[in-house]
Amino acid sequence: MPVQIRGTVLTLRRVDAYHALTLVAPAIATKFRPGQFITIAVGGPETSMLGRRAFAVHDVRPDHGGTVEIVFEARGPGTRWLASLRARDTLDTVGPLGRPFPIPRDPSSCLLIGVGYGSAPLFGLAARLRERGSSTDYLLGGDSAERVFGALTARRNGRSAAVATTDGSFGARGAVTGLMEQIIREARTDVIYACAPVPVLREVAAIAGRYDIPVQASVDVPMACGTGVCMGCVLPVTGTDGITRIVRSCVDGPVFRADLVRWDDVGTIPFDALGAPGWSARGEWGGGQPPHDRGVIRGVVPPGQQSYAG
Q1: What is the pLDDT of residue 280?
Q2: The pTM is what?
Q3: Euclidean distance between CA atoms 32 and 95, whole angstroms
Q4: Is 34's pLDDT higher than 80?
Q5: Cα–Cα distance between 306 and 309 in angstroms, integer?
Q6: Where in the chain is CATH 3.40.50.80?
Q7: CATH level 2 (architecture), domain 3-97
Q8: What's the pLDDT score for residue 308?
Q9: What confidence score (pLDDT) does residue 294 get?
């Protein structure tokens, strides 16, 4: 069960284009599992910014004061306010939230893919994988060198580490997905873990599907409450029964089997989703809107326009 606490800021430092904030929050640190996230109230007690901000967790140290570290970019009013904090300031924090990454029962060859500061949760996951005897290969990316997070750590701790940047300033030029197939073949990858914007996750899932490799994807969609109340982070996911349901990323995820997410329909209500106009129990279109007409979900940003919350 998540807890709500007032955590004390221990440190706030710059990491290239990003900020890393370490919070003393032992009640959260002891419950945390890699892949989960926290939400933070921003702006202070008299702010007009009522919505919390959701952050993936980069590192926890339950045995060293119970600290929790997040990594973020100061791009909106909420994150700019966070970047202005000082040590010993306090933050209203809720966590840990969401479903964690599943860990293979047997030692496996694991490829970890991250873009920008979305790579942050991969490093705690990697430590857990190594504890279970699995090997880790990293594939990290960003728009430029300063927007690649964790490359040095990946090279120190991973079996291998590859980097791609859009402008070619660090590693290969292009998207991270351009290096995927080579790494899969060389590393003999058994499973892929990915933290990236939706368009990248869609491509990761497509490439992995050609090799029949399972992907566990931490889905980047905007969140508000983080507890499943506001319905602002929904996306279409097909269940093992073959029925598509509109699920909440914050409580049913943020980690999903990538092959079950309908990536092309994120931001819409597919005509054949459970409860959609014209849906029938037999999975047939029964009238209402025609099958090619998808209704946009209010508050959800269409694919290709998602960005990390500010």
Answers
A1: 67
A2: 0.89
A3: 8
A4: yes
A5: 9
A6: 109-220
A7: Beta Barrel (2.40)
A8: 33
A9: 39
Higher per-residue confidence, 279 vs 119: 119
- The answer to whether residues 226 and 97 touch, using CB atoms and an 8 Å cutoff, is yes
Cα dihedral 62, 25, 127, 158 sign: negative
Q: What are the pLDDT digits (tens) for 283-294?
A: 444 444 444 443
Structural tokens at position 249: 């990323």
Q: 109-220 architecture in CATH?
A: 3-Layer(aba) Sandwich (3.40)
Cis peptide upstream of residue 34 (ω within 30 degrees of 0)? no
Contacts of 154 (CB under 8 A, 6+ apart): 112, 123, 138, 140, 161
Where do runs of H (alpha helix) occur along 53-197? 77-83, 121-131, 151-157, 180-187
Strand residues in 144-301 grouped as ranges (E): 160-165, 172-173, 191-197, 215-220, 234-238, 244-248, 255-257, 268-269, 295-296
State the number of CA atoms in the 13 A half-sphere of 247 facing the CB. Answer: 21
What Cα–Cα distance (Å) separates residue 192 from each residue in 169, 200, 266, 293?
A: 26, 13, 21, 33
User: Alpha carbon 271 to chain centroid distance?
Assistant: 27
Using alpha carbons, select from 77, 79, 78 the residue that is nearest to residue 19. 79
DSSP 3-state of 300: coil
Q: Locate 58 and state its tokens.
A: 């980069």
Q: pLDDT confidence of 305, banded at 50, 70, 90?
A: very low
Q: What are the tens digits of pLDDT across the range 183-221?
A: 999 999 999 999 999 999 999 999 999 999 999 999 988
Residues carrying CATH 2.40.30.10, the chain: 3-97
